[in-house]
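Troubleshooting log. The previous structure file for this entry was overwritten by mistake, so regenerating from the original sequence record. Sequence copied from the archived sheet and checked twice against the printout by T.R.
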Amino acid sequence: MRSTLTFLAALGVVLAAPATIDYARAKRFWSFRPIEVRAVPAVRDTAWGASPIDRFLLHKLEAKGLKPAPAADRATLLRRITFDVIGLPPTPAELDAFLADRSPQAYERVVDRLLASPHYGERWARHWLDLVRFAETDGHEFDNDKPDMWRYRDYVVRAFNEDLAYPQFVREHIAGDLLPQPRRSRDGSFLESPLATAFYWLGENKNSPVDSVESIAERVDSQIDVFGKAFLGLTVACARCHDHKFDPIATADYYSLAGYFHSVRRGQKAVEGQAPRNESGVQFGGLTWTVAGPAFALHQGRLTSGNVSPVRQGVTYSNIFPLTKRYVHLRVAGSAKIRLVVDEFPLNPFTSGTPDFKWFTYDTLMYAQHPAYVSLVDQDPTGHITLAEVILTDEAKPPVREKETDLAAGNTAETCPEPMLTLVPVDDVVADTRVHVRGSHKNLGDTTPRRFLPVIAGLDQPAISQGSGRLELAQRLTDDANPFLARVMVNRLWQHHFGRGIVNTPDNFGLTGEPPTHPELLDWLANEFRASGWSIKHMHRLMLLTNAYRMSSAGNPAAQDVDPANKLLHRFPVQRLDAESIRDGLLAVSGSLDRKMAGPSVPVYVSPFMDGDPRGKPKSGPIDGQNRRSLYVNVRRNYLADSLTIFDYPQPISTLGKRNVSVVPAQALFLMNNEFVRQQASRWAQRIGAVSPLRPVQVKQMYREAFSRPPTAAELSAAQSFLRTQPLENYAHALMQTAEFLFIR
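Regenerated output below.
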């Protein structure tokens, strides 16, 4: 520990109590400094170093006496870039077209074609989903569904395809429901911006926690952890129990951020139509109600949803109120879900299913004075619900009322269109947060005003003007003075293209992270990102058109001795495909892949070998996932698809900017024995066999589809020998298990 502190002191970083942290001195560390305008260095090999990126790389190689690897062959390059940009193998037709195009612009046209593909958004959305620990269920015991979370996934796909400016993308995540001019979809039919805020609710969630206040603190801690790592590359959550041991982030700074997240609760918002109805202020039963969707309205003195329309109706929820009385009685008729939510957790949801009014009672003895609200969800395609009374009382029995029949609002399909709902943060529990001494919610210290990290935004920040302050937080986070926003994002793009980030700890730009291998290049890229209008596609294009990206992966013994970890990028790294690309590649070569985009997720296939709490076990989907891309398979925390987890698909716990890559015997056994893999091999063989009865033609076609190259004479001879005694299905299965199928060079 002493040597670590000595090292940090040498950097000019003061590790001290909040009152004595010298933020100005802390900014001497490389990642806290402003982004500098870097001059492109001179190089000897000006032909190879034609682009600025190549010159930055070549400058360091030449300083070590190294030369970059030669260019990769065109077929290898096409397979590499196609998997990289869209996550799928190139088709034989695409291979033929590229090999036949001998113009100097042939490769550039491939780059532009792939970046324009709608499948680009699918590929790069999945990278982003790793950062926000995307899942569609809560986990814990019952693994309850998160409503309509697939809409967030599709929002991210569209944002990447439309090349949304990165600061706008970030602002929409933090405060998309509060933006004065929210962004609409391309066709104008719905609001895009609020969809991003569903990311607040992607974390794990306990079912009926024993200590609800503690559970809320855990929820906020997860949100801060993701916020800090995904947007800033900083481990802010390390300051929950004490001042950060290494970075200039005090415990008070943590709880200043926590105030933003404690100031919201989960709600739903309608985003469809020219004027989505999301009304607040409907007074009924002594409470103020928010209507999400067009269905609920006051009708004959009662809060009523529409009927007869064969659509999903909508949601309404009350303001938060303290439980000053023991019992909450609700008189309801119709068909809908009724919830009393205490400390963000629903108590025993009821389902109303009768046309006559009926009392539903909640005993809140354990939750005296806790904050609560009432939620009604009408999801019956032909039904409706009417809330006649809400009573808070110490009387265990509700009052007797004369029997009556439900009153429906009488909406029709024309007046009650299907609402498009999304989860959003609701700003109605606004308050600054007190420090939790040593992280304990039972030991409270001083109140900390809401503000962004002082080491980035300074100590003199304006007070929050209204609500939770999320809009101000979004503005401070995306301010040009914040050096992390651009640096962290361009480093993530670089890592996915070159296999290793310039900073090899993409979620940790702090003192315990790895320093950049090419700091001048990182700042040049960050400046270029900002100058381009924060265009992600522009940055892709710059990186993909370099000679560095087009290098061969063949090793040079001399270079390997000098740069064994390939930190200087003297060759292109060999990389194993990620889990989704392996599964999608199997579907693609078999001819089964359904390229349909968007929409509700496909139920996950639950194999007999998948363990999990039986109380949350879902009904199994088809083994082939309806032939959809892996992106569209339902992400259930307790039942992740085994065809993905075997190849290091991440557990959705926290930000994961860099996946593990393992090569273990279980993967080989999976490819040999798994019924999904064998199913795809059979389909591939059937399709190939139907095209041609000639074995040499079949083998050549399969090599082109699987490896983007023809077989060698030796490979063709070996295949013909194998096929004399084995069916084509077994040969297809063998090709799917090869290293060449699983890796890109």
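The radius of gyration is 29 Å. Archived copy saved in two places this time.
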